[in-house]
Specification:
alpha+beta; MetI-like fold; Methylamine Dehydrogenase, Chain H; about 40% helix; elongated
């Protein structure tokens, strides 16, 4: 045995070509022949890389099957959401506002800068009014921008479908404007007399303009569906008319500043205490640190997280951390943070020297889908499921094919006839219609994991006839050879002869067939999922990701949702097929002549 392993894998002295030809083992010959095939070796390297990616990737980027986020739907590939223009930093940062996928900045000269994913569906927030004067302050909503000019006028651009930037004449003539806020299809403007003016979808966002607090308000913030004001005496008030968590849970405290997320409001007191109310357990906004290293002196809110500036110049954050927007990098906490700007999933920390550092969501490597999910994460996890289903289906088919083919080829006669008729029956079943009918009959009663097992089993049970015919033919060719006759004469059991003596001698053919069947099984699973009869969302596979992109709008406007899954599936299938062809040529050199 030791000599066998040395001959196969051990280091030996270099022999001349004649001696090498005489004692070269079949395994070494196959390996050397395969390695000399550059195309197959390239495919092998590519497949190994893909396999490692889909094995290791889901560990590093696990997918949350329940995740969806409206604000992140259909975002194109790229990681430029926090790419602050250098000119803005050079000229001095006056203000920054964060929108859904973009940010707006104003420098000390009043010039406006816009960066990130600015082409929001239905509008383009870079379409700034041509006659825009120097800007004093800016606010960004879901897909629109509101600005206060140095001339005291209100300006807006972006989506105006709900009239969120269609300001009336009386608002333009207000004179002094203290504050502006922009949210989802809504805008709030606070004038110098403490009156808030609302624009936009008041059916979605609970804002009652004729509330009792008008004339007393000094600050206003917007959640996804409500407006909260801060009175002159520091009392927080709900500016809507219908009961919401913001109105029923308002704390009896005096605050110096308010901040809001999608579903919560936070207030900062003069002594540095922070109180959060609304629906704080939705995304973890209530999970505030037990204590801060220094007293909080400023607060800002994103989509589901809060960031505070501390008295010592450092920052602290808490809440949802899906995009690490609540993890303040150590490099930022150097005690030199002057101002913080936060919105959605981005954070900007302006230093005392005027530079800016960022943390949070930079963008999506491969874009996002129609539910706001990261395509890179879903392709990684989808590849794991697609390859697993294909591999286990091939394993089932290989076991059945070896057993049936080996028994049929060795015994022949009536056993062979019976097994071949069964094989022909299975082969005659129309594969896709059969699986679709089976799915309709019992599929709806199964859970997502059970459906995956069903697909594996069905693929395996219907894919073995081709392999069994191949094994049967090989067994026919070797069963009358001398070593088989010797085994019979020694009284070795027939099943031992089949599976210990014959099958190992035809294993090379089985390997080639299994490799090619693996690619076929992945394509079949993807076809079923693409037709809607395979693995169902939210569990990702490459097939159902393509199924989710099966409409003209996505194909034309959101190309990344089908191009990248298609590339991943195509490359994997091509690599596996090229590996199979290379193995076949290495094992059977005469196949190249046929």
């Amino acid at each position: 045995m030791r000599m066998l392993f040395q001959n196969l894998f051990g280091k030996r002295d270099e022999l001349d070509i004649y001696k090498e030809e005489q004692i070269q083992s079949p395994t070494r010959t196959i390996i050397r022949t395969f390695a000399s095939n550059k195309l197959s070796m390239t495919a092998l390297i590519g497949f190994v890389i893909l396999l490692l990616i889909v094995i290791i990737g889901p560990m590093l980027y696990p997918v949350d099957l329940a995740f969806s986020e409206q604000s992140q739907q259909n975002i194109s590939p790229g990681q430029n959401m926090m790419s602050v223009p250098p000119e803005l930093v050079q000229n001095g940062i006056r203000d920054i506002a964060v929108g859904r996928t973009f940010s707006v900045g104003v420098d000390d000269n009043g010039e406006v800068y816009i960066w990130g994913k600015t082409n929001v569906p239905g509008t383009n927030v870079t379409n700034v009014p041509e006659d825009l004067p120097p800007i004093a302050r800016v606010a960004a909503g879901f897909d629109h921008v509101v600005a206060i000019g140095e001339d005291g006028q209100i300006y807006g651009w972006g989506n105006n479908r709900q009239r969120q930037i269609r300001f009336t004449r009386d608002v333009q003539d207000l004179g002094e404007i203290i504050d502006i806020a922009a949210g989802y299809q809504s805008t709030a403007i606070l004038d110098g007399e403490g009156v808030v003016h609302f624009f936009g979808n008041t059916n979605l966002t609970e804002m009652y303009e004729y509330n009792q607090y008008q004339g007393q308000i000094k600050d206003v913030v917007l959640t996804n569906n409500a407006a909260i004001g801060l009175l002159d005496d520091g009392t927080p008030v709900y500016l809507g008319s219908k009961p919401l968590p913001y109105s029923t849970r308002i704390p009896d405290e005096k605050f110096i500043k308010l901040a809001a997320t999608n579903k919560t409001v936070a207030g900062l007191t003069a002594d540095g205490r922070i109180i959060v109310w609304g629906s704080p357990n939705y995304k973890g906004e209530a999970a505030m640190p037990d204590e801060f290293e220094s007293q909080p002196i400023d607060i800002a809110g994103g989509q589901y997280h809060y960031v505070v500036k501390l008295e010592n110049g450092n920052l602290a954050a808490w809440g949802d951390n899906t995009y690490r927007q609540s993890t303040v990098p150590a490099s930022i906490n150097d005690g030199n943070n002057q101002t913080i700007y936060t919105g959605y999933y981005q954070n900007y920390a302006v230093k005392e020297d005027g530079t800016v550092q960022t943390f949070g969501l930079k963008g999506y490597l491969l874009g996002s889908d129609g539910m706001g999910r990261d395509m890179w994460q879903r392709i990684l996890n989808g590849g794991r499921w697609t390859m697993t289903i294909g591999a286990l289906a091939v394993l089932i088919a290989t076991i059945i094919g070896i057993v049936v083919g080996g028994v049929s080829g060795y015994f022949g006669g009536r056993v062979d006839i019976l097994l071949q008729r069964i094989s022909e029956i299975v082969s005659s079943l129309p594969f896709l219609p059969f699986v679709i009918i089976l799915n309709v009959i019992i599929g709806n009663s199964l859970g997502p994991t059970q459906r995956i097992y069903l697909i594996m089993i069905v693929l395996g049970l219907l894919s073995w006839p081709g392999l069994q015919r191949l094994v049967r033919a090989q067994v026919f060719s070797v069963r009358e050879q001398e070593y088989i006759t010797a085994a019979r004469s020694m009284g070795i059991r027939e099943y031992s002869i089949i599976f210990r003596h014959i099958i190992p001698n035809v294993i090379s053919v089985i390997i080639v067939s299994t490799t090619l069947s693996f690619a076929s099984s992945m394509l079949t699973e993807s076809s079923l999922s693409f037709l809607g009869f395979g693995v169902r969302p939210p569990i990702p596979t490459w097939g159902n990701m393509l199924y989710g992109a099966n409409n003209s709008v996505i194909i034309q406007q959101y190309w990344w949702q089908w191009v990248f899954p298609a590339i991943a599936l195509s490359l994997t299938v091509i690599f596996v097929n090229l590996i199979g062809d290379g193995l076949r040529d290495a094992i059977d050199p005469k196949s190249q002549e046929r």
